Structure prediction request, 397 residues.
Amino acid sequence: MNCNVAVMLMHDYLDDELSRDEQAELKLHIDSCVACRTRLEQLERTEALTGTMMDKRRPVMTAEQSSALTARIMDSVPFKRRRRAGFASWVRSHPAISVAAVFVLVMFSSFLAMWQQDSELTVSGSDLAQVVISGDTVTVPEGAHVKGDLVVENGKANVYGEVDGDVTVISGSLYQASTAHISGEVKQIDQALDWFWYKVSHSISSLAY
Amino acid sequence: MKSVEARLARLALKGDQRAFAELVEMYQDKLYHMAYRMLYNRQEAEDVVQEAFLRVYRNLERYDDTMKFSTWIYRIATNLCIDRLRKRKAVYSLDAESSDHEGLDGYAMIPSDDRTPESELLLSDTQRIIHQAIETLPAKYKSVMVLRYLEELSLQEIGDVLGMPVTTVKTRVHRGREFLRKKLEHKL
Prediction:
């Protein structure tokens, strides 16, 4: 056995974690190696001395000191009837989160108000001359050729002809006939979140250009 | 079935002072002993124990009773001791170079106060040497060694207290033991 391995085994032995076979192996090595025998003796002595030194039965404080410490601890602990962690105290201890929460709430409610407000039909686009609007229906007739984008809000869009750009339908339905041809993107926005995103990105891009 | 400590902790959380007093009684001396072995200073050990109970009180609602209460409280106290040892080291390492005391570093130079019980005053030479060797152990070995010898905690429990895997605990026990062996080799 290598001496390094033997030293590892010695420690495991002192930790009471050596199987009987390993103990036998270790013993075999130690019988033949003076250095390791000395090492084990030193370690065993260290272990024993440290153990005695740290023995918990060796008192480190007297009874009076102990009760004085108890009194000191009980005095220092701020006992009080714990209030149930109330809303007010939570708000006081988390100012930043509270402010953010109020902000989000306000934003959200105003956004909801906006969302419900627009229930009138709105049509926008760069070329509305060929678009037929009747009631809440916006029709791109067959043979018509709309240049540019078309946005329909709160209404039905029936596309029979060609649109040379994007068609966006917000809170409405889109019908595309087989003769329809839309060269750009077709977007239908129903979800509040989509709508919100559309508004935001739209206002940002309108700022940019 | 919940442990006694977990039930006391629950009562203390509801504002029962006597329940908390009982927890103090159960653990105060154990913690003091541990802190004293770590710091070898009465005043500091008392401060650590007091601070540990304050933290226990403040964090009672966060106590997770799937963890043994003893593990939790030892963790709090051990961390406080380790912090103090580290702070000492930071102060003493500044002039560590200039110290020409053989085998003594910052730890050994901390004056241990003398208000110890009789039993500690009457140290034999051998005991004094061991005492000194233990005092010079680096904090990370010291915490492991103190928990190992003092409370006879299993390696697993020590790992839980210190938040490290058992293999690390073992390595530290081994290194700490070697450290002490080297310190004591020429003196005994």
Summary: Chain A has a mean pLDDT of 84.
